[in-house]
Amino acid sequence: MIAERLTTLRQKMKECGMDAYLVPTADYHESEYVGPYFKCRAYITGFTGSAGTAVITQDEACLWTDGRYFVQAAKELQDTGVTLMKMGQEGVPTVIEYLQSHTKEGMTLGFDGRVVNENLGETFEEKLPERFLSYRNDLIGDIWSDRPALPAEPVWILDQKYAGESALDKLAKVRKKMKELNTSVHVLTSLDDIVWMLNIRGNDIPCNPVVLSYLILTEEEGHLFIQDKALNDDVKTYLHDLGMKLHPYDAVYDFISEIKGQNILLEKGYVNYTICQSLMAENTITDHMNPTTSLKAVKNPTEMENIRKAHIKDGIAVTRFIYWLKQNIGKLPIDELSAAEKLESLRKEQEGYIEPSFETISAYGPNAAMCHYQPTENDFAQLKPEGFYLVDSGGQYYEGTTDITRTIAVGPLTEEQKEHFTITAMGTLRLGNAKFLHGCIGVNLDYLARSAFWERGLDFNHGTGHGVGFLLNVHERPNDIRWKVAPERAKYAVLEEGMLTSDEPGIYIEGSHGIRTENLMLCRKAEKNSYGQFMNFEFVTFVPIDLDAIDTQYMAEKDVELLNTYHKEVYEKISPYLTEEEKEWLKEATRPLKK
Amino acid sequence: MIAERLTTLRQKMKECGMDAYLVPTADYHESEYVGPYFKCRAYITGFTGSAGTAVITQDEACLWTDGRYFVQAAKELQDTGVTLMKMGQEGVPTVIEYLQSHTKEGMTLGFDGRVVNENLGETFEEKLPERFLSYRNDLIGDIWSDRPALPAEPVWILDQKYAGESALDKLAKVRKKMKELNTSVHVLTSLDDIVWMLNIRGNDIPCNPVVLSYLILTEEEGHLFIQDKALNDDVKTYLHDLGMKLHPYDAVYDFISEIKGQNILLEKGYVNYTICQSLMAENTITDHMNPTTSLKAVKNPTEMENIRKAHIKDGIAVTRFIYWLKQNIGKLPIDELSAAEKLESLRKEQEGYIEPSFETISAYGPNAAMCHYQPTENDFAQLKPEGFYLVDSGGQYYEGTTDITRTIAVGPLTEEQKEHFTITAMGTLRLGNAKFLHGCIGVNLDYLARSAFWERGLDFNHGTGHGVGFLLNVHERPNDIRWKVAPERAKYAVLEEGMLTSDEPGIYIEGSHGIRTENLMLCRKAEKNSYGQFMNFEFVTFVPIDLDAIDTQYMAEKDVELLNTYHKEVYEKISPYLTEEEKEWLKEATRPLKK
């Protein structure tokens, strides 16, 4: 099947004079996750993982993906004629290096410019000189006869009691920033930015309540490119009252070609190449982080209050799930899929719950050592009454987005497992209890989460924390906690009051166990004095950290104190919503430890 | 006197058609400290502090300096006709802002291009458009009739037993880097870089054993511009054997004007404007950190071994000083100057001691709250048997450069003083005991030194650590420990094995006390495993931290353990060189504490 598709594609490439064709994993909006309509790379290679890039020439077809997917990709690419390129492995060229060596001057590289951002397009221009870039055709779209329809889920208005700020006020702030940057037009195409600014939500990407749309803002006007069928009359009136002129979703390309002589504010890494190339021909571009991105990262007081509420609800669901699991392990048959379903059913009992905020990672034993493991209908494990079960999940609530990981002892543990669990909890708690001067970025604080690992010659190979949206994407810029400095990002990443960030150290021992403990935390102002404005974090996630896996011999007195303080709060906040049996169990599960 | 000088200067400015004349504090090599020949700013304003910039117009003369010098500058500028511009104070324009508002298009800004680096010159070009920059005249030199002579101290060869690597090998490494960067000529004018590469030393700047010189390197040739009278025959032969062609010091400008059509490696922030402007007219410039800078920061095994030796010597001197002070305070009259002299006399007893590595900060009581306080013959305090005495000093030894701060209880302390002293010691010890993955920069680790302060809403307003040279400048790039990310610096600042860095948290309470505890530490490799290369630090400074000022109630168990471990090593390393009385005292001064 893949072979046939490749043959058809190669025929098309010949017709269009393309020597190589590149298919990334992206939609027209640089979204982190893409829906079925945009799974072109999966269509042409057969590889269904969430990340990968394909390059097809007349002689070869190659698929680049990262370490998470080497096993799955090898399986799925078998007999397809597609070669797996293991990213980061010695001797494996990058996509760019491959294109450099497999195309010559005068040749043509084809791709759909709508699924490549401007920064990547400019990298092609720079690194592949004397090649012609043909970006106006979607060859996969041309040959994909049974392509799923574009989603057009109903758009709904996020009430001000949840949003905390009117869309008109947000628009005014963005327009003020446009003016400060001496720009007359702002082109905004990232979906979470658009729906945040307009206080609307939808469901065009699973788990991400966004709406397929493009927005062009001037000082006086707003042009929203959106599918009409997604809008009811109330929403249309609402958008009209915000000053939005509505256009068909795909009319944006013609519209943009008419913009001339303007200074345009846009963020090249988040606007597609087709749009940027069209604009750059006749306008000047001010490449700057979308003003909405820094605005929405800083939650307002209403959002903060709602986030606390959402996390109590989520905490009740996850706490009850742990209780259920502890009671039933070894008695009922439980597997990774049924456990995740149970958790989802408990979340659904909570008022205001909408959907998961991402696909649940439900992993037993050695499976949890694969950071991004997800069970499938064809491949999942039974839980046995020994070792650890890890669940990383979250919910979308009207009051906000949650993201929590707990690792649960479902039976006897080894000493090593206890030590690893204990230092992971220490990392989460130490970071969450940081106090620091305003101006710090995550890079200043990451050591707190890692020191207990690094002292032992251990580490975890992922960032410690990411920003989280408000009833929006579970991964949100620009705040994060990591130790490697990305100079271009550093200036935007100062931790501000109202930012919501995850705190999720972990450890992954191949073939044995995986542990991660994740809380979300709001950044808050502490005292201000002659030294400056001090800041700290407020945990909003309240679910017990499994004391069955804690061994205080690895902890300092202060670590024990932090754990006890956290557990006291868990009990106070969650117990009022539990049954007597659950409450009794929680009392024990949050008991203070002694050093 | 200053008024007369200003009148003469203004006359000169008129003759040269200059509307404003700028006098920074610099030599021709962007050195951190300058000798008497280069004190033009002090000559024209009367302000003798180590940092400041003067701008003179026909109507005004202004002097910018920072908070350290507000009091001194106000005093020295009185009745001179020079206005003090307090940098960083609200409403005070920066030098650039002042020039923008006090010069108009078509006007001329004059300065000696040899004492302004290329980056600053380019800032003038950018921020002062339509002004003419006249940089070829040294007007202060023209009017300064009794200007001191240029120093020309004897140059000597640093034996390989100290340097650990031959100059030929160093030259080869630099030439390799030139090639990697596709450059044919390297212009190197920073003095510590030149003498490090050639394994020579001199004494042309007090405390910095450097030699006034410029170096131009090609693949085959080396041209050293240096004062002939500073060289004896041995040194000449040595330099000749390195392939160096010797030219008069100031012949560099004519030489450079002959270079054409080359790609030139130089670092714009460290080469003067006159040189760069001349080169840029006829060549292309590759602006890159001097290869010598990153090479010399990483001490080789011989240097590391020598550094340890130098620090034992220095540790003996400082330990004996503390003993002397503790025995004699309240009995002998001791003041800030005589205490510093005593310390210097004890250093002089050490074999291989050359000179101080910077001007000693000797500060009693509230004086220590001024970070950069130095007593003068006219203004110094008596030590009383109460509170703290702080001494920040260092030595140049054949085996390396030292830099140490100890704060010593010379009598009863308040509870607050003890708490402040204790958290300062905790900061020094926690940072020095960091373990981290290779790739970390100081920004990742600074929290360790500050957390005990920040938890209490306290801070210190200076960096935590700086690089230190080998028998060279006490402040050396690129390694440092600080919490604010400087994006442009981050990529060079990765902590590598062999880097020598200071670790010096402190606290400064105006009118009351100042505390700082400073050790130097070598960065070392720890274990390497699948997570990567782990790194840690090795303290090289061994002098007791005053237990009379420690209160364990503020310390975690781990902090006490770190202090005890450090003190054990201090006793082991230093006691063999002490008298019986000193040894007995040291035993007590390094006794293990209990939590």
Question: What labels describe this entry?
Answer:
homodimer; 595 residues; alpha+beta; six-stranded mixed beta sheet; 36% helix; 21% strand
Itemize the secondary structure elements and their pairings.
The structure is a homodimer of 595-residue chains.
Chain A: H1 2-16, E1 20-23, H2 40-45, E2 53-57, E3 61-65, H3 70-77, E4 83-86, H4 95-102, E5 108-111, H5 118-127, E6 132-134, H6 139-143, E7 156-157, H7 160-163, H8 167-180, E8 185-188, H9 191-198, E9 200-201, E10 213-218, E11 222-226, H10 233-241, E12 244-247, H11 252-257, E13 263-266, H12 273-282, E14 284-287, H13 291-297, H14 301-328, H15 336-348, E15 353-356, E16 361-364, E17 388-393, E18 395-397, E19 400-401, E20 404-409, H16 415-432, E21 435-437, H17 442-454, E22 465-467, E23 476-481, H18 487-490, E24 500-503, E25 506-509, E26 513-516, E27 519-529, E28 532-539, H19 557-574, H20 580-589
